[in-house]
Structures are given as structure tokens and as C-alpha cells.
Amino acid sequence: MKKFAPLPYFVLFLILVLVCACNQTKTSKEEETILKGNATIFVDETLSPLIEDQVAVFEKNYEAKIKLVSKSESEVVNALFNEKGAIAILSRNLTADELNIFKARKINPKITPFATDAVAFISNKSSKDSIVSLIEVISFMQGKPTPSIKGLVFDNLNSSTVRYMNALAGITSIPKSGVFSFKTNDEVIKYVSENTDMIGIVGVNWLSQPSPAMQKYVDNVNALRVKGLVGNESYFPSQNNLAERKYPLARDLFIINCQGYSGLGMGFASFVGGDIGQRIILKSGLLPIRIPGRKFIIDTKSKKDEK
Fold first, then answer.
1. How confident is the model at residue 145 (pLDDT cuts 50, 70, 90)?
2. Share of the chain above pLDDT 70, in %
3. CA nearest neighbour of 127 among 179, 182, 194
4. Start and end of every PBP domain (predicted)?
5. Which fold has domain 117-251?
6. Does domain 32-116+252-288 have CATH number 3.40.190.10?
């Protein structure tokens, strides 16, 4: 009978490593469900305060750990294409060209609309103006002389607010004169609170949910009423005006899940779109995609019956 020589030790060690690696990969996939495990979510930084609240409550209710990465809109979109199985939160839907790229990769993004946000114009508390005309803002961004506006301040050049306002003005880049950019919404609020005659442009949830360190700066700015492109009425960025589609700078928010399996992306999207998540949005000052129901207890007993 022919005898086989025993396998060398290094071959046995290699087989053992491969088996362990396969088991570890299998285990890591099994560990993540729609309500359990770890995930990274890329979020448009203009929406960070709202999403931080959602994550805090989600983690408290489930065995989940979500790492939030706040970036500019263009960086979040890049992460969707470059990171495998990415989850992102944006103030716009994917374009037809972007969807075609995913289709070519055989990826079908799950897109969940969950709220309506507002782009807010802010001024220093000492400013006499309480109303701004959208037509004049657009003219200023197009480089036309506009006596009523001295300057506009954005968060950063790659942000969703810059992209949104550029689209309204029909331009591809902001003018070199009179329009300034920082890095964050907090920096815009702080600058406007300390300087008169400037109009800041921020996501409205940065005003309704300021951090303790920012409260004093938020207290020193006013959100302006905005006169739209049609008619003479001006509107404040309130929930009611968003619901009635009166505020002219409203934008819908989306969760875009490219995981491709039933993971935390699906669970988080369901949570945000569900009763608890929608109540968090309602409390934040934004408009939920659906208004949570309210329960009333009617006591039919009279005081006479109790005696």
C-alpha cells in the first residue's frame, strides 16, 4: 500500500488561518441585522443635528452602533460611489446619471424620503430688515448690483446649500465678490451674529437644534422671512409654511442605502420613517414625511359618578 507523507507544518498553519478567516467573515455578516451590529452612515453636514438625535435614540433602543461621518454634499456622494455598501443621508435624491452608474454596477439603491427641510436666511439681531427677496438674492449671486444686500455667507463651496442656491440662480459657481464661504454652518452663524449687514445661508435645523456652545450665537441672529419668486407675500421657515408649501426654499431629505442586504441601513431607514423617528423630526422643527398620530384619552366619568 502506498503511504502518503504528512503535510508540512506551514501548510497546516495556512489552512487553519484560511478556515478562521472564512468563519470570521461569516460571523461578521451574521452579526449585523436590521437592528443589530455596526454601520457607518455618511451625512450631509447641514443635516447633522437632526441625524445625531435619530442615531442617539436608535442606539438606545437597539443593539446597534452607528458611526456618523459628516461631510459636504459632494463628499457624501463620492462616498456612495467609492465605499462598498455605503449608507448616506442627503438633501436631494440621486440624479438619473447617478442611478445609471449604480445600475451598471448591478446595485439597486434603496431610497427613503423622510422629511422636508428648509434653507434659511439669517441676519444679525441688530439688522432692521426682517424680510429678504429671493429675486434679489439670486440677482446678487449672478453678480448684479443689489443695494439691499451687502454680502452672502455660505458654509463651504461643496455644500448642499451652495449647490441648491447655484441651481436657483442658474450659475455653476459663486461670484468672486460679495459671497463668502467658511467650513461649517456653525461658523456661518457665529460670523453673522458678530457682523451686521451680512446674510448667512444655513440649514434651518442648525437654528432649532443648536449645541450648548452655539446657543449664544443663535440667540443673536434672526431667521428672515423670504419673499418668493411669485407674489408679494413673505414666509418664515416654519413647519406650517413647509407643510403648506408656502416657504420657497424647501427641500426633501433622503436616506440612500446601498448595502444590498438586510442590514442596519434598512433598519435605520425604517426607524426614521416610523413613528418614533417622525416624532423626532417633528420636534426638531422640520416637517416629517408623515405626521405622527396623537392619542387622546376621553374620560366619560363625571365628578358626580366618582362620589
1. confident
2. 85
3. 194
4. 37-272
5. D-Maltodextrin-Binding Protein; domain 2 (3.40.190)
6. yes
pLDDT (tens digit per residue) in 200-259: 999 998 998 888 999 999 999 999 999 999 989 999 999 999 999 999 999 999 999 999
Please say whether the beta carbons of 123 and 135 come within 8 A.
no
What does each C-alpha distance from 236 to 38, 74, 79, 118, 209 come to in angstroms?
A: 39, 28, 34, 10, 17
Q: Is the pLDDT of residue 29 over 50?
A: no
Beta strands in the chain (DSSP E): 36-44, 63-71, 87-90, 110-124, 131-133, 152-154, 179-181, 199-203, 221-223, 225-227, 234-235, 250-257, 287-288
Mean pLDDT across 50-68:
96
> Which one, of 18, 70, 11, lies nearest residue 203 by Cα?
70
Handedness of CA 73, 250, 123, 282 (dihedral sign): negative
The whole-angstrom separation of Cα 51 and Cα 70 is 10
Reduced 3-state DSSP string for 66-89: EEEEEECHHHHHHHHHHCCCCEEE
DSSP-derived 3-state class of residue 232? coil
Residue type, 258: C
Count of CB atoms situated within 10 Å of the CB of 77:
23
Q: Which residue has the cell 454596477?
A: 105
> Cell numbers of 257, please?
442605502
Same fold, 32-116+252-288 and 117-251: yes
